[in-house]
Specification:
The structure holds 2 protein chains of 2 kinds. By secondary structure, chain A is mostly helical. Chain A has 10 helices and no strands. In chain B, the strands form 2 sheets. Chain B has a 6-stranded mixed beta sheet with strand order 6-7-8-3-9-10, with helices on both faces. Chain B has a 4-stranded antiparallel beta sheet with strand order 2-1-4-5, with helices on one face. The longest helix of chain B is centred in the last third of the chain and has 18 residues. The radius of gyration of chain B is 18 Å and the shape is globular. Chain B starts with a strand and ends in a 5-residue tail after the last helix. Chain B has 9 helices and 10 strands. Classes of the chains: A mainly alpha, B alpha/beta. Chains A and B meet through helix 5 and helix 6 of A and strand 6, helix 3 and helix 5 of B.
Chain lengths: 233, 240
């Protein structure tokens, strides 16, 4: 039976590990996706195909690999991270980072390619150019963030394998739902599921409101002036 | 001011532009004409230091482009594309963008932005977002964004091509007046010979990736140097 304090602790841990994993994914995915979108180098398509494949990584496979690495006798066993929240963060970052990277690259590739030249032609440094491209692509970049968070808050396989679902230590909402279901406690499992859905909805609602507030109009550079033949009034 | 010698531009291993010699004097407006795909815009990209030549050299103020710090050089020029490519911000913020890149003080930015909004007749639009502008208004903002930088070299790539004829004519008139009054060095790309004659001191004709002739409009019309230039002039609409 779960008590209120347990539910609170599980919910807080779920949010904490998923938020940290998403933040790390953003720190990796934003520059990496930008480099892939703007770069023109040999092997770029190959790296993009790997990233795109990574977007569909099965969480249990990630969990298995991370568990092997962190296992006591594994290469990183000395760090004693297995069955800790840090292990869950590592696994979730591996799941989320390709999603953020791939969607960042797609968001920047969707901008008019001449926009880079226009910004440079106005005297932007490389850093200023990237900043203003991010600014212009902020809507799809927020979508990348939402997708990254969504991919980890709802996953169960990796959290179970590397976290161990230890009460008070590594139990998160999804692993708690699995446990209660296996015990036949469907009422509690359903309540936790509803809680997970509400939390996910509220976070995505907040991000969606921010995203829609910055919605671009018809004349923004990402969408307009694509067709030179178009006659403008 | 600009000296181009033995220039060869390649893209994907293919020659796209060849210029043996071309000089542009300070305060001169040179118009580059030629059919679509001739290499006119490529020349502007090279002059903007956004495309590197496979061979040859370009000197700006007597110094080879390769010797210039890229950012320092690009802050001496300004580029206007055919599409206005405005950012998703207000008209005023769009015009101030290049000054912001250069770290210009707020008061000076406001004063210069105000001056150019007035000059191009877009003062009433200052608080409007780019998404609320018509095509002609957007192109005026794009021109103001370039002129406000007071560049030593202004590069204009068919900025009126997508506009309807009345807007086109009015904007051409205004740009012609500003260039005359401002004595700014400019390279203007178009495929319209009348437009070229109105705006510039000299015209450069590029056909099939090669610079064939440079001279005043009248000379080019009366004495094309070869069959390729002649064929290009023949294919222009009669109104030109």
């Amino acid at each position: 039976m779960l008590f209120d304090s347990d539910v609170f602790q599980i919910t807080a841990l779920s949010l904490q590990v998923s938020a940290i994993a998403t933040l790390i994914s953003l720190l990796i995915g934003l520059p990496l996706g930008t480099w892939l979108a703007l770069g023109n180098f040999r092997g770029r398509s190959f790296i993009l195909s790997i990233i795109n494949t990574g977007m569909a990584l099965p969480p249990v496979v990630v969990g298995l690999v991370v568990a092997i690495m962190l296992w006591r006798s594994g290469p990183l066993g000395e760090l004693r991270l297995i069955y800790t929240p840090v292990a869950i963060i590592i696994a979730q970052t591996i799941i989320s980072a390709p999603v953020v990277t791939g969607l960042t690259a797609a968001a920047l590739e969707a901008l008019d390619p001449r926009l880079q030249q226009q910004l440079l032609g106005l005297g932007a440094s490389r850093g200023q150019m990237v900043w203003y491209l991010w600014r212009e692509a902020r809507l799809p970049l927020l979508a990348a963030l939402m997708a990254g968070f969504g991919s980890v808050i709802s996953e169960v396989g990796a959290s179970m394998m590397v976290g161990g679902n230890i009460r008070g230590q590594t139990r998160v909402l999804t692993t708690a739902i699995v446990l209660e279901t296996s015990k036949g406690e469907f009422d509690i499992a359903l309540a936790l599921s509803a809680l997970l859905l509400v939390i996910t909805y509220l976070i995505n609602l907040a991000l969606t409101l921010i995203q829609q507030k910055g919605r671009k109009g018809e004349f923004s550079s990402g969408t307009l002036w694509r067709s030179p033949s178009r006659k403008l009034p | 001011m600009i000296e181009i010698r033995d220039l060869l531009i390649q893209r994907n291993g293919r020659d796209v532009l060849r210029i043996d010699a071309l000089d542009i004097a300070r305060t001169e407006t040179l118009t580059v004409v030629g059919p679509n795909g001739a290499g006119k815009s490529t020349l502007l990209l090279v002059l903007a230091h956004l495309l590197k030549p496979a061979r040859g050299h370009i000197r700006f103020d007597g110094r080879s482009l390769t010797k210039w710090n890229e950012l320092e050089y690009r802050r001496k020029i300004s580029f206007v594309f055919q599409a206005p490519l405005l950012m998703d911000m207000t008209v005023e913020q769009n015009i101030a963008l290049g000054l912001k890149f250069r770290g210009t003080r707020k008061e000076e930015t406001q004063q210069r932005v105000g001056k150019w909004m007035k000059q191009l007749g877009i003062e009433p639009l200052s608080g409007r977002r780019a998404s609320q502008l018509s095509g002609g208004e957007a192109q005026r903002v794009s021109l103001a964004r370039a002129f406000v930088l007071e560049p030593e070299l202004l590069l204009l790539d068919e900025p009126f091509a997508a506009l309807d004829p009345p807007t086109h004519a009015k904007l051409l008139e205004d740009l012609s007046g500003i260039l005359e009054q401002d004595h700014r060095t400019a390279v203007f790309v178009t495929h319209n010979l009348n437009e070229a004659a109105k705006l510039s001191h000299r015209i450069a004709v590029i056909v099939d990736g090669m610079l064939h002739q440079v001279g005043p409009a009248r000379q080019i019309k009366m004495h094309p140097v070869n069959e390729m230039v002649e064929a290009f002039l023949r294919e222009l609409p009669q109104s030109q």
